[in-house]
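pasting for ref
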Amino acid sequence: MGSLALQIPKLRQGSYFPSLLEPRRQAERALLNVVQQAYITGASTRKVDELVQALGLDGIDKSAVSRTCRALDAEVDAFRNRALTAAYPYVWLDALYLKVRENHRIVSQACVVAIGVRETGEREVIGFCAGSRGKRTLLLEFLRRLVARGLHGVLLVTATATKA
């Protein structure tokens, strides 16, 4: 793998994509997944560039990393805002407190995860949120958003008691 400069002709209508490049799409997607995974785990753009170079490529600039990871933001938003159509008789809430950088300071933020159990017994992450507001305010807003997305049929909610 490495860089290869190709000139692809422009057509007035439609597009031209050489069939010899088709198998490379899977390798390109794998590279994008590596870049996105590094981004998720908190690697700096410099570290991502070093990782790409270690894979034998020329490297990647930080604007390319940002463009690549914008797709993640869209997927996360789609997941967080999807409609909840099934009934979830049982819901578990749990919070994990993480140190995050906010306005050039390190602060503690809660990451709340809701896991629903369907009537069939299948477990599913039905939502998550993060915030530094008061615990009750954050949970109340989170639960209201779940109900607005269609959460229904709840018989029991279990939440862990956590300290900030």
